[in-house]
What we know:
Blueprint: H1 11-33, H2 44-52, H3 76-88, H4 92-118, H5 122-131, H6 134-140, H7 146-165, H8 169-185, H9 190-204, H10 207-210, H11 213-243, H12 247-255, H13 261-277, H14 282-299, H15 309-323, H16 328-333, H17 336-341, H18 344-359, H19 371-393, H20 400-404, H21 413-430, H22 438-441, H23 455-463, E1 474-477, H24 480-486, E2 492-494, H25 498-501, E3 510-514, H26 515-519, H27 524-531, E4 535-541, H28 547-553, H29 564-567, E5 571-576
Helix pairs in contact: 1-4, 1-5, 2-3, 2-24, 3-4, 4-5, 4-6, 4-7, 4-19, 5-14, 5-19, 7-8, 7-9, 7-18, 8-9, 8-11, 9-11, 9-18, 14-15, 14-19, 15-19, 18-19, 23-24
Amino acid sequence: MRPQPHDAAPATALRREVLWIAAATVVGAALRLQGLPRLGFVHFDEGIYAMAGLWPFRTAGLAGLDPSVIPYAPVGFPFLVGLFDMALGPGDAAAILASIVAGVLTIPAAGWLARRTFGPGAGAAAATLVALSCFHVSFSRMALTDATFLLAWVLGLALAGRFLERPGFGNAMGLGAGVGAAQLVKYNGWLLGAAVIAVAAAELADPRARSDRRRLRAVWGFGAMAAVVAAAIYAPWFRFVDAHGGYGSLLAHHRSYMGGVGSWMVHLGLQFEEADALSGGWTWRLAGYGAAALASLAIALPRSRASWREPAWLGLGLLGAVVLPRFLWPASASMLPASWRDTPAARLLAAAWLMLTVLTPFYHPYARLWLPLLLLCWVLVAGLVARALRAAGQGGARPVREILGVSLRGRSARGRVAFALFFVLVAAIVAPDLVPRPLAARPPRGLGPWDPSDSLRVAVREALPSVPAGVPSLRVLARPAAFYYIGGRISAQLEPGLSTLLEPERSGRWALVDAAMLDQEGDREAALASLLERWDVVGEFPARLNLPTLLDRDPLAARRPSIESAASVPLWLLRPRMPGAR
């Protein structure tokens, strides 16, 4: 059952697609690099990764990596940040640029994955969707693991697809390297290998696949070799974690973020709402989907007037995705049956889509966890559009429903019931889009993906000159990024929590307190009031959260009509209150 290659397209179509993907990459790079000097650390985790990224300047090098990064992520992203620090000098710009570069490289990587899986036209459309995605732009401009992981995820899916199509020694090495690299960036990188196993196991139940026993033996035999390679790549990090608290403690930490069946639907709804809020509004969705449709048309332009009927129906579908943001998910779901009947690489994307759809809502609803599934939605929809246009351009103009395999003709009663249930599910998923949500319709002013995010850096630099020379040190209750920005300019100690600052201060130390940390106490005003019983405010320095950070801290913010006040998180410089002072 050898798959039919898609590389037999005319050379002119290939050139057009390569040029379009290159243009999308340039546009995507410009969007992600815009205003780079005004970008800074905002998220709680960015400071952790930045401090871990200083490993090249430690005596022990990478072996001296700060173990505080262990609960957050494996070594992959801090390693990359360290390389950029060595090349550009340590700072927030270097760490953020590492993420931007990974985000830009994801654009052509997604184009390659889509084209090799679904043929001409799909690559240009997928690359365009990634390039113009405000969701992806937002996380590419932050020093978080997500843009880097998405690049590893896309490349890993492409390598895994090659392995499933042509199992052999070289492709097994590529698969093992892809899974190992993905797991070194995020702890859930193993899902890539799980998707490959799912496809291989499903083929055991497929009579067509079982007929090629030689291929099945190769898949499982070389697949085991790939697993050994992936384990060997991850083993040094496993040993590092085991030597600093134990891997069992790490697993217990991540289990604490898991929900159950009862929270699954709630988390899924929140993930959709966060994705809507980060989409940039209907204008950016229109730009992205419209440009992706033009990309596919440029590669597979229908030749006759009659053959334009199918692109017209697809145009209505794209319009639905603009007006109803959740429509993209069921649109990609409709491609699953056709993908499963296609090549092993297409089956892999279908399996990965199903796994992420089921598993992601079990975890805490962080917006950024939706990115790998969103990318699969883009690739599957790009494949759907490209196939329909190619069929129309060849004169056959097969109806889209036949391409998808959703025609009711010839279906059994059970098939008709399953078909009806699917559309009930689609209606349930899309229905909330009919209820206006101000945050999704109108992104908050000052919190967009291209707005400055350096307010914390500015606040710290404005606060430090107000500390007198005679103060022995500064007690810091703030996001780790604030401690990073202090950078040895003054002796500082990171406080574990509010309770330590409520104890009497007898050594004359001052304190720098972040409102974002007081919010974690549950009531900012009450926490501040308790502080002011022992401390006097010397100065208040404004700072703001960006939208991705705010949604990570409070997923329910996606449902609120206004979040500007919640995004304001000033720093307070405090000095100990003298005995008897009021």
